[in-house]
Amino acid sequence: ALPLLEALACAHEMGVLHGDLKPSNVMLARDGLRLFDFGLGQPLKGLLNSLPRLSRKRIAAWTPRYAALELLNGESLTSASDIYGMGCILYELSSGLHPFSRLTAKQAKTMEQDKTLHKPARLPAHCWPALRIALAFDQDQRLIDARGLLNAFAMPRPGLLQRCWNRIAA
């Protein structure tokens, strides 16, 4: 999880959104982990010449089971959208199962599946509050960025995450 989170944090800090985080875009090589296929990526601000300029109004190529609700609703890609996809991957890595039984965020929200989401048995307890925040359906409740998620997984900071969790739960 840590190398994957480092890769996303690095991309975001360099001003690049991934746009289609899912398990098949992660590879483990002999010399480390690779996060690839930035084909739906875009810059946080302005233009980056090396990224494609797909019209997001004409093409919605997100992988539905890993796409944040706002993407499924036709809204713009944001770093919070990447955080949702990363949350799905991290949940799946620690449990072997997609967090919402392979439903899209829209389907899962309709069925209120987030209310039955439990900490995966193999996930360290200090990681659960951060992962739970990353899996929030509503973008304004995903109050953690890639670096914050990395820090939460690397070094527990229960006070900060508990305050975020309490704000969401209220």
Question: Could you walk me through the main structural features you see in this protein, from its secondary elements to its overall organization?
Answer:
This protein has helices spanning 2-13, 69-72, 79-95, 105-110, 128-134, 146-154, 158-169, and strands spanning 16-17, 26-29, 32-35, 42-43. The chain is built from seven helices and four strands; from the N terminus they run H-E-E-E-E-H-H-H-H-H-H. The mean pLDDT is 86. The strands form two sheets. It has a two-stranded antiparallel ribbon with strand order 1-4. It has a two-stranded antiparallel sheet with strand order 2-3.
Compact description:
The protein has 7 helices and 4 strands; from the N terminus they run αββββαααααα. With 170 residues, the protein is mainly α. The strands form 2 sheets. The protein has a two-stranded antiparallel sheet. A two-stranded antiparallel ribbon has the order 2-3.
Strand order, largest beta sheet: 1-4
Distance between the termini: 29 Å
Q: Which structural class matches the secondary elements?
A: mainly alpha
User: Overall pLDDT, averaged?
Assistant: 86
Radius of gyration: 15 Å
Order of helices and strands: HEEEEHHHHHH
DSSP strand (E) fraction?
Answer: 5-15%
Total number of strands: 4
> What characterizes the major β-sheet?
2 strands, antiparallel
Number of helices: 7
Helical percentage: 25-40%
Spans of at least 5 consecutive residues whose pLDDT stays below 50 are none
Q: Tell me, briefly, the overall form.
A: globular
